[in-house]
Amino acid sequence: MSSAESSSASKVMIVTGASRGIGAAVALLAARRGYAVCVNYHSRSAAADGVVQAIRNAGGTALAVGADVSRQDQVQAMFETVDRELGRVDALVNNAGILEKQTTVENLDADRITRVLATNVVGTFLCCREAVRRMAPRHGGRGGAIVNLSSMASRLGAPGEYVDYAASKGAVDTLTIGLSKEVGADGIRVNGVRPGLIYTEMHASGGEPGRVDRLKDSLPLKRGGTPEEVAAAVLWLCSDESGFTTGSFIDVSGGR
């Protein structure tokens, strides 16, 4: 099924950066919960197609849509594709994010800072904007849920590793709080999830694939987390069970 008509009975979710890691886990769990899912990706088209195929093999509805979320035109095109192929969006999960090599602030340059903020902050803003333009009753919508993937780094600062990434997630936290107050009366709930040390490929992007294993013993739970554990928190925030929760955060961090 790929048309808006064929998926009309399903709620529609867009998951950005869903070709791997937490995003893929969210997309797979959402499909099992009955959502028709847009699996967004930037460059990993084959991996995104694999997530879509897994959903379809299990009887679900999914569509892979390439878009660089830092580009306004591409974000708009992605939402228009979802409108046409799946129907009006009910849930948006802003998961797309980038992390660059570990370093200190004194060694950062403007290009790197701009790249990180463009994807992690501008991209989240743009996707939120397009979702509100569809979810709000004044635009013909029926409300909805937005979940922004932040990070425990937003609270800890990531000193000596990636303060730029941490700062970008601090901005995501503030966006989450502010937007939740703007659109609450529209029946749109906006919440955040702050993962901690989770076994994903992102740590390799930071230059230390084994980072979780190095730090896990410092956690109260003495282990790293899984993408599926983060996905469960995200799906709860999208569900009716969290109907009175907005402007809030769930830390999935093993007590970090």
UniProtKB/TrEMBL annotation:
What are the Ketoreductase domain coordinates in residue numbering?
Answer: 11-201
Query: How far does the signal peptide extend, from start to end residue?
Result: none
Pfam families listed in its UniProt record: adh_short_C2
Q: Domain of life here?
A: Bacteria
InterPro entries hit by this protein: KR_dom, NAD(P)-bd_dom_sf, SDR_fam
Alphabetically sorted, this entry's keywords are: Oxidoreductase
- GO terms for molecular function, please? oxidoreductase activity, acting on CH-OH group of donors
Coiled-coil annotated spans: none
SUPFAM superfamilies (alphabetical): NAD(P)-binding Rossmann-fold domains
Family recorded in the similarity comment:
Belongs to the short-chain dehydrogenases/reductases (SDR) family.
Q: What is this protein called?
A: NAD(P)-dependent oxidoreductase
- Organism name: Bordetella genomosp. 13
